[in-house]
């Protein structure tokens, strides 16, 4: 399968996930974080496809691509860019609608209780309205706290990964240093071995010559005596 089409399939899957998130009524911090992560992934996929198109367009013959293939991939990128903008606008509109709904509901409750007489009114025109506002503020604070905690966890994980990579870098440097030492020792040992062998060769030759001389002397003596 063409790698371009494989990456395009990933982009289509990510678009479907984003659309399903937008269609959900829940507006919790987890949903917001999930959307942001998938949207960032979709933007990265778009940039990867864009770079791949630039490379293949400069040398289409190397990738067995025709001019029609290049034009088709340009249209795919154009459609993907439009989908990214559409999803972003839909997400922003959804969040704005949620905020307006909350504000409208709060104003409506306030008007109804003011007209009918608020049983929880403390005498200065405030009561359930302030409670609703405080509840909304607390919910927003809770969402911000969750986002802040998530960012702290991500930062901690990044620091741990950085420390691990740094430790592994030190270990690789030490291993490289040890390998250099072993290599140097091995070379010195081989040199000593070669010198030892050369010396032994010379000693063996001298012993052979000496033995032969002694044998010749004995033979000469025997010949003289005989």
UniProtKB/TrEMBL annotation:
Statement: the UniProt record of this protein carries the keyword Transferase? no
Q: Which GO terms describe its molecular function?
A: SNAP receptor activity; SNARE binding
Alphabetized, the UniProt keywords read: Coiled coil, Golgi apparatus, Membrane, Protein transport, Transmembrane, Transmembrane helix, Transport
Gene Ontology process terms (BP)? Golgi vesicle transport; intracellular protein transport; vesicle docking; vesicle fusion
Q: Which residues cross the membrane?
A: 204-225
Q: Which residues form a coiled coil?
A: 32-90
- InterPro entries listed in its UniProt record: SNARE, Syntaxin, Syntaxin-6/10/61_N, Syntaxin/epimorphin_CS, T_SNARE_dom, Tlg1p-like_N
T-SNARE coiled-coil homology domain residues are 134-196
SMART domains listed in its UniProt record = t_SNARE
Against SUPFAM superfamilies, the record matches this protein to:
SNARE fusion complex, t-snare proteins
What Pfam families does the record point to? SNARE (PF05739), STX6_10_61_N (PF09177)
What's the protein's topology in the membrane?
Answer: Single-pass type IV membrane protein
Q: Which family does the entry's similarity section mention? A: Belongs to the syntaxin family.
Name of protein:
t-SNARE affecting a late Golgi compartment protein 1
Protein species of origin: Candida verbasci
């Amino acid at each position: 399968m063409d790698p371009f089409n494989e990456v395009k399939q990933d982009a289509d899957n990510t678009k479907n996930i984003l659309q399903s998130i937008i269609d959900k009524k829940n507006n919790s911090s987890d949903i917001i974080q999930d959307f942001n992560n998938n949207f960032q992934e979709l933007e990265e996929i778009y940039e990867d496809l864009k770079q791949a198109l630039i490379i293949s367009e400069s040398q289409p013959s190397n990738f067995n691509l025709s001019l029609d293939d290049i034009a088709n991939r340009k249209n795919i990128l154009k459609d993907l860019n439009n989908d990214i903008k559409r999803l972003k606008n839909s997400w922003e509109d959804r969040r704005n609608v949620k905020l307006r709904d909350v504000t409208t509901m709060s104003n409506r409750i306030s008007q109804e209780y003011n007209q009918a007489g608020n049983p929880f009114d403390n005498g200065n025109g405030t009561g359930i309205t302030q409670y609703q506002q405080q509840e909304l503020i607390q919910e927003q604070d809770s969402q911000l706290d969750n986002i802040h905690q998530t960012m702290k966890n991500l930062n901690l994980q990044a620091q741990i990964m950085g420390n691990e990579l740094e430790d592994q870098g030190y270990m690789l440097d030490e291993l490289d240093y040890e390998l250099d030492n072993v290599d140097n020792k091995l070379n010195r040992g081989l040199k000593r071995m070669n010198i030892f062998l050369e010396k032994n060769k010379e000693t063996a030759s001298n012993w052979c010559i000496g033995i032969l001389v002694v044998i010749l002397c004995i033979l000469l003596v025997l010949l003289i005596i005989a």
